Amino acid sequence: MSALRHRNVFVPTLASLVLLAWAALWAWTRSPYGRYLAHDDLSATGPLAWLCRTMPGGSLWLSALFYAAAWTLMILAMMLPSALSLFNAFDRVVSDRADRTWLLALLGLGYVAAWSGFGLIAHALHALLLAGVARVPALAWRGWLIGAATLALAGAFQFSTLKTRCLDRCRTPLSFVISHWRGRTPRRQAFALGGRHGLFCVGCCWALMLLMFAVGAGSLGWMLALAAAMAIEKNAAWGAGLSAPLGVALIGWAMLIVADHL
């Protein structure tokens, strides 16, 4: 009875967290600060430009703070639904523990931490890329190349060995949990387990998430489409078969962009 009651509370709580994240993203895109969700420069124009210029290092740490918040919201909205099988598997393993609610929360924190770390790295590389493009006039006039290259990279990665191996781990969370869970120092292990599985999830989906920089991180439609694709890949019985067609579609899209600009 207690296990059923716990499950009846946990699933709606996780669903509510995901819905709140989507609602926050929707409100953010329609606020005066929506442009920052799309990775615009905070120090150029807009509501925070003055604050960035007046505070020491504001253009660096304040923009990083906004991007970290935006990325974390996107992870909660886009990736937590695809990780539901991980939570279910871990819940089965720790079902007889009195502190399993805390352990599930720490598992989620570890998972989000892995994705947040990737997001900060991706943002830094994106900023460096844009700075480099701005210094090369020939590239500045051909910004479409960045989008085409990102699409082609994401498409090619769908056929890689790394993608296959990480996707296999993501699709078998119960065996992953059983092989890594020992029960000693349980809270630290729960966080580490979430982070470790999150790294495999990053390894599986990082190229698809980079598409947010190509198609626009401020587009809720693209977020929903990418979230659905990643959730199907990792959870549906036929999900693994989606990887190749998706890869072909992305490479074809990149080729169309190149052909349109030649």
SS element count, helices: 13
Give the overall shape, derived from the CA principal axes.
Answer: globular
Strand segment count: 0
Chain-averaged pLDDT: 81
Largest sheet composition: none
The class by helix and strand makeup works out as mainly alpha
| Estimated helix fraction | over 70%
Report on this model:
The protein is mostly helical and 262 residues long. Helices cover 79% and strands 0% of the residues. The protein contains 13 helices and no strands. α4 packs across α6, α6 packs parallel to α11 (186-215) and α11 crosses α12 (220-235). The chain starts with a helix and ends with a helix. The mean pLDDT is 81.
Question: Helix and strand layout, with pairings?
Answer:
Elements: H1 2-29, H2 34-37, H3 49-54, H4 58-78, H5 84-93, H6 100-134, H7 137-140, H8 144-157, H9 161-171, H10 173-180, H11 186-215, H12 220-235, H13 243-261
Keywords:
about 260 residues; mainly alpha; 13 helices
Quick recap of the structure?
Helix content is 79%, strand content 0%.
